[in-house]
Amino acid sequence: MDTWKGPTGHAATLRWRAAAGTAAILHRRAAATTAAAATALEAIRPIPADQREQHELAERLRAAASQLAPGWLGAPLDAQSEDAPLGGPAQPAYVRVGTAQPLDDARFPVLVPLLGTGHLTVDADSRDPRVAGLLRSVLLRLLAAAPAGSLLVRGVDATAGGRLFAPFGPLAAAGLMPPPVTDRTGLRAVLAEAEQWVRPTRPATARYNRHDRTLLLVVGSLPELTEATDLARIGALAREGPEAGLHLIVAGWPPPPLTAETSQAPLSRSTMIAMRNPYALVGDPPGASFSAPVPHLPGTGLNAPVFLDECPPVPLLDRVCRDLAARFQADYRRTLDDLLPEPPDGFWTESAADGLSTPVGHAGDRTVSLGFDERTPHWLVGGRGDAGKSAFLVNVLYGLCTRYHPDELALYLVDFADGTAFTEFVPEPADGSGGTGPGGPWLPHVRAVGVQADREYGIAVLRELDAELDRRGAADPSPVPVGPDRPVAAPVPAQRADADRPTPRILCVLDEHALLLAEDDAIGTEALARLESVARRGRSAGVHLILTGRPAPVLTALRARRDSFLGQFPVRVALPGGADVLEPTNDSAAGLPLGTAVVNTAGGLGGPRGATRGHERTVRFPDPHVDPGALSGLRHRLWADRPAGTPAPAVFTGYLTPPPPPVPTPTDQPDPTGADGPTGADRPTGIDGPAGIDGPAGAGKPAVADRPAVADRPAVADRPAGGDRPAGGDGPAGGDGATGVDGSDVAGRPAGVGQLSEPVGAPVGLLVDVSPRPAELPLDRAPGRHLAILGADPSGAGILAGAARGLAARHPAGSVEFVIVAPAEDPAVSALAAELSRRHPVHRVDATGLAGALELAGPGYLVAFGVDELTTAGDLPPDRLRTLLRDGPGRGVHLLGWWRAVGPFAELVAVPAGPEPPADPEPGADAGTAVAAPATVDGLLLLDVPEAEVTRLLGRPVRWHPRPGRALLYDRRTDLASLVVPYGAPDGEGTP
Ligand SMILES: Nc1ncnc2c1ncn2[C@@H]1O[C@H](COP(=O)(O)OP(=O)(O)OP(=O)(O)O)[C@@H](O)[C@H]1O
């Protein structure tokens, strides 16, 4: 084994000397640190020169404390009387944090200035039970002593998941203090709110003094790995907060210096508490010193060990929080009743001729009303999630609907979010249909409701309003200046349609409207243009808008536009988190508690702080849903009083799948109108809005052209029963062994075949429209009148079956034949065949029978599942199919087919029309010049087919975002594409 020998020589000697020198320096440093620590310990444990003097001083300090921090602010909490009154006259300036004990038998309360002065930090976080106790006791003291409602608290407690604030739960339930945040996202939200409160970005000229409310941010523990930027935000808030009424209590500050970036200086303007064992040291408060000041030397803090206040007794905490919550509710909570007309006045006593008006809340004892007229035509309402937007709106809607007769006010209510807003205005199902059938009661003012509506539905509503404005002859006025100085227009009476019946004012609410505008696509562009048009023209024509929603970038962008249509929205309502509907310089909505709103009638403009703002109020409004019974009773009353003949609202419910129409038994009458949509016969009249989503934008254009049959041939009832069987021996009822599903020979089918002379439509679902109605493709005698369902989505089978059912229902019993072709046995297909056969002759064939089925004499329908598969398996020449596409409709035969793949379908219809001598030229016809009609399929229902592929197929751009539960119905004849909610399975679940 080698023995290590140290280096020798001059260089080595130098290195040893250097090392010895370093060691000596370190030793001297350690000795100095020890000496300094000893001095510091001496300083905090002074040996009193004169104990009597110390006792007298403690006595004087106790007396001073009882004056500076009386009652809740300074009394020992474990001895606090149950009856101590809550809420003082003014913001508390000092609060007790513990007891100093300079001698074993000399004590005095330690107070620190906080609200109105600065902040408080503790160098350990709430995992130390002494820190947790301190935070709870300080918070309790402040809440109990502050004037009612003047102190807003936000809590952060990451390490204990919010348990630090658990005893304050009753305050959260009452809306006085939101639940604490526990992670980085929550911390950032709280910091953003505090920054909003402080508004460092507002003009330097703005005045910062906020006298009415204080925001207290209490951090029990920061989230692990809080980023340096967020720590810096806390530092900035500490510097700028006090003048704006923001104060911080931060435990665990400075945070552990893990990196150079996260190392933080002490929080400025704060009193620092340093935890020792078992006592704590309290540093000097901002701008003052506990000890006699020594010139040019920093203060040393309180020269005595301090024992921090412990957690208040839980029963006391609970009682105070419950009392505060109850007082808040008793003082401020009103009910919806307070916003409704006085009972002696009754309902519907006010006139809408000069405008609409309703109370929206109370500011103290004053009732605050807002209106819709030429000065305040439209409202913009903002708030974060769960801010009470729905509550506010419901109050407004009931307020209006109790004051104005349905002849004077009509409502359109649309919600674009995934919620249940406005479902309470949808007729209650009277028939167990789960909300899809007509029932009652509904608010008689409501024309249309869109629940979880598509953007296309929003467009349809705006088109309808635009069309209504055309009817009212509304011109586009020059923009109206918005602001406190805008001219006051003379009220314009609502136009009268005739002497007796006024033209109603229309109010349209678009909830979460940003979703309509969010995407930079054709729908977003049209929506913006229509909103601008309706907002500008509706002002003097009695058409009003309420746009509500959460803060959204699109709103910020719109506001930034100088000519923004938001200039037409002078009424701004900011609920908690909704300050973005106000001007950036207006901070009056910062820190609003739940149940309150800032209502501003000057486009959100603020004004000098302290000056009376006639155009702005902070109101409290009730939660109308606290008493569902009262709300429902009110709705029943309004419904019971409705004028005779008031139609139920047209309801579009985005999440519902319409069931296919049932096939009636032969004794039932057919339903040629197809009025089998969810709103049924109660559908309101006069709503004929467009459904085409990419056709010409003109309102009122029907989605599906209702042109007369091109070559309407006479009904075939004059033919002998059974005499129109396919002549060829391979026809569906012929030699290939196909039989009626009921086992009977088709020759025995009832007389009266083909008695319906009007062309019927193949229904595929419901149009997404203001008044949802069946989406259908009219099948007349023109070549190409067939329906192709395209896309691999398995719902295609159910939609095809639904179309067949709908057609079967619309023909007189026994008047048409159905041939059902499927590549394989399928119980759902069998069920369809069985159902159809109760009314019409039905034949089942497989791929090998397809060629024969093409020869169907008519009238009838070839219902083909998986046509791409069938044609391959059956080895069918495409030209045979093309001949059917061309000639079938002429004899009343239509193909209803589902192609899973678009390619084979595109190939089938790609063959251009060419000259072709007619097979059997009419006498005198010029056989050489006849042109064969192209083999087309006019009706396409596109499922999960991408937009680019649809564009290729149609030969023109089309807007289409494939999504579950939606399809695009295209009619080649009208070149119109309409968004459709396709049929589901008969039982509403899955697909056949
Ligand atoms: N005035 C009020 N006082 C007390 N609680 C209220 C008040 N208004 C609403 N709330 C309560 O606040 C919660 C959220 O209310 P609401 O649904 O109206 O908010 P929202 O802003 O419409 O929410 P979202 O944006 O998520 O749809 C509900 O639990 C509701 O009961």
Highlighted features:
992 residues; alpha/beta; Rossmann fold; 3 domains; 30 strands; 26% helix; disordered N terminus; disordered C terminus; binds adenosine-5'-triphosphate
User: Numbering strands along the chain, what is their spatial order in the largest sheet?
Assistant: 22-21-30-29-28-23-27-26-24-25
Oligomer: single chain
Whole-number radius of gyration?
Answer: 39 Å
Ligand identities:
adenosine-5'-triphosphate
Percent strand equals 15-25%
Describe the protein in words:
The chain has 992 residues and is α/β, with parallel strands linked by helices. The chain has 3 domains: 51-203 and 213-290 and 299-329, P-loop containing nucleotide triphosphate hydrolases (Rossmann fold); 365-640, P-loop containing nucleotide triphosphate hydrolases (Rossmann fold, 3-Layer(aba) Sandwich); 761-912 and 931-987, Rossmann fold, CATH 3.40.50.300. The protein contains 20 helices and 30 strands. The strands form 5 sheets. It has a 10-stranded mixed β-sheet, with helices on both faces. Strands 19-18-17-12-16-15-13-14-20 form a 9-stranded mixed β-sheet, with helices on both faces. The protein has a 6-stranded mixed β-sheet with strand order 4-5-6-3-7-8, with helices on both faces. Helix 5 (184-198) packs parallel to helix 6, helix 9 (455-471) runs parallel beside helix 11 and helix 14 packs parallel to helix 15. The radius of gyration is 39 Å and the shape is elongated. Bound molecules: adenosine-5'-triphosphate. Adenosine-5'-triphosphate (ATP) binds next to helix 8.
